[in-house]
Amino acid sequence: MRERTALVWPELYFVRHGQTDWNAEGRYQGSRDIPLNAVGRGQADNNGALLRDLFARGGRRPDEFDWYVSPLGRTRETMERIRACFAGPLPEVTIDARLIELSFGIYEGRLHKELAEGAMAIAGERDASFWFFRPPAGESYDDLAQRLVDFGSGLQRRAVVVSHGGVLRVLRRLIEDFPAEEAVNWFPPQDSVVHFAEGRATVYPAGASWDD
Question: Which residues fall within 8 angstroms of residue 25, CB to CB, at 6 or more apart?
Answer without folding.
Answer: 111
